[in-house]
Please model this.
Amino acid sequence: MIIIGIAGGTGSGKTTVVKSIVESLKADEVAILPLDSYYKDSSHVPVEERQNINFDHPNAFDWKLLSEHVEMLREGKAIEQPIYSYLTCTRQAETVHVEPRKVVIIEGILALSDKRLCRQMDLKIFVDADPDERLIRVIQRDVMERGRTAEAVMDRYVKVLKPMHLEFIEPAKRYADLIVPQGGHNRKAIEILKMYIEKIVGR
Model:
């Protein structure tokens, strides 16, 4: 089993990189653990205060549970991955059953920001992209998929995304074994990454 961590700023192209890896493997060879699934449950927080939760800060995540799940998968045990609702900021009663696979991918903006979790990884990847390009992608995504106005997205970018990126996400780059510049557009880097993984898997 190879456990891979893929981090990078919002809109950097992490999803494209993950998708490329998944497409190069058989369905029963890979499991994905989205970091977003491991946000702390906020059901104890008054509803009116939940909108103030900073989802880009390391304290928003349940690192202990994620590390336990990674260890279980390493030991050949299945896990019940949480389902998190952004609408209510709570963990749902339902879970996603995840079986151990040859390749386990932990993907999220802060995937390389927890020391214990990093020690559990066999390969750490940071997907890098120009800040302007990331902002454009964030605006496009949030306007089209989440119904936000461009002004609201840019306001959040300046007040939350950019400061959190500089304080927590960017510094994690130094822990990466491989940095993929130009994000999901870097086909050569992605191909090299896929070749490495396929070698480990035993292709």
